[in-house]
Design brief:
The chain is α/β, with parallel strands linked by helices. It has 2 domains: 195 residues, 2-enoyl-CoA Hydratase, Chain A, domain 1 (Alpha-Beta Complex); 47 residues, Lyase 2-enoyl-coa Hydratase, Chain  A, domain 2, CATH 1.10.12. The strands form 2 sheets. It has a 6-stranded mixed sheet with strand order 1-2-3-5-7-10, with helices on both faces. A 4-stranded mixed sheet has the order 4-6-8-9. Strand 2, helix 1 and strand 3 form a beta-alpha-beta unit. Helix 3 runs parallel beside helix 4. The radius of gyration is 19 Å and the shape is globular. The chain starts with 5 loop residues before the first strand and ends in a 10-residue tail after the last helix.
Length: 260
């Protein structure tokens, strides 16, 4: 399928997915949301891709937000439907089988920040701005932002950022846990690929179960989450990678992973 607003490159089990609307600061208009939804479905089905890096075209923006011109005339139920559609898309990233890295090369605001928060790991260029400024438009974050931001940085800080609409730098975002790493602009994609390669060369069964344990366990009561973790730990022993990984360790050699 041809995509007008997305670019995709794949190499060595890593996909680089670029949102390609630099003239609009890569804002997520309805067409781009549709294309991104279809692209994620394709990537999730891929037997070759293990890690997906998401970034924005150009040097100004990762994703500067949703398309305000497209949202302005919406009626209440239409706006709700758009929010639910975007939430389903971002949920398919957060709870998908692949590992997603956000390579934040510029503004990550509104829907762009919500997209980045749906990813497993976030790497940002020094000085870029992130935030949920929807309150300045008379609305709230509706694509998962009120929930993901609070879970990542805590209730108090999340309320402060959303109620003021303030943007923060990548440096402050790192301090509060919104960003994992900060790099120079020239190092963004190389560093993202470096991390993606490390993940892609590990047992993919173990990687997926780590993602499930963290994402699902956070929604559980603590003792139930420990039982859930033990269940997934036990499940590892049903695959080939546990046997190979432990045997390779005992034999002091590199493991050859087999589970998908």
């Amino acid at each position: 399928m041809a995509y007008e607003n997305l670019l995709l490159e794949t190499d060595n089990h890593i996909a680089l997915l670029t949102i390609n609307r630099p003239e609009a600061l890569n804002s997520l208009n309805p067409q781009t949301l549709d294309e991104l939804s279809k692209m994620i479905v394709e990537l999730e089905k891929s037997t070759e891709v293990k890690v997906v890096i998401i970034t924005g075209a150009g040097e100004k923006a990762f994703v500067a937000g949703g398309d305000i011109a497209a949202m302005q005339p919406l009626m209440p139920m239409e706006a709700r439907d758009v929010a639910l559609k975007a939430q389903r898309l971002f949920n398919s990233i957060e709870f998908g089988n692949k590992i997603y890295l956000a390579a934040i090369n510029g503004y990550a605001l509104g829907g762009g920040c919500e997209l980045a928060m749906a990813c497993d790991i976030r790497i940002a260029v020094a000085g870029v701005k992130l935030g949920q400024p929807e309150v300045k438009l008379g609305i709230i974050p509706g694509w998962g932002g009120t929930q993901r931001l609070a879970r990542l940085v805590g209730k108090g800080k999340a309320k402060e950022l959303m109620m003021t609409g303030d943007m923060i730098t990548a440096e402050e975002a790192q301090k509060i846990g919104l960003v994992n790493q900060i790099v120079k602009n020239s190092e963004l994609l190389p560093e993202a690929r470096k991390i993606a390669t490390k993940i892609a060369t590990k047992s993919q069964l173990a990687v997926r179960l780590i993602k499930e344990a963290v994402d699902n366990g956070l929604e559980m009561e603590i003792n139930r989450s420990f039982t859930y973790e033990a269940d997934l730990f036990g499940l590892c022993f049903a695959g080939q990678d546990q046997k190979e990984g432990m045997q390779a360790f005992l034999e002091k050699r590199e493991a050859t992973w087999k589970d998908r």
